[in-house]
Amino acid sequence: MTIKEVSERYHMTQDTLRYYERVGMIPRVTRSASGHRDYQPEDLSWVELAKCLRDAGLTVEAIVDYVELFQQGSGTIPARLELLRRQKEALLDQRGQIETALARLDKKIAGYEGKIACECKG
User: Fold this and answer.
1) What is the pTM of this model?
2) Which tens digits make up the pLDDT trace of 69-83?
């Protein structure tokens, strides 16, 4: 699969894909005989993981660390697990903050809707 096809499939720019590879967020992508990127299923799995981890709020540095740990082998599974657990906790904290903010907004919206309804009757 070409970089253009991967870009369209995952809604990422080609520059982003090149950047992910350059900094180590994904391992070096398979190349064709002519040297062009030729994404294979394993490469696509790494792109999907990088996208997922970025969407989950992991920093570039944390994702690079994860990839490096993975490449070091199964002895790093506890470290990878800890990295993911820490991010899950951060997301749960963030979700709590968002839920609190939504509840507050709902209360404000209901108050304003009530005032508008009273003005219409009056």
Assistant:
1) 0.76
2) 999 999 999 999 999
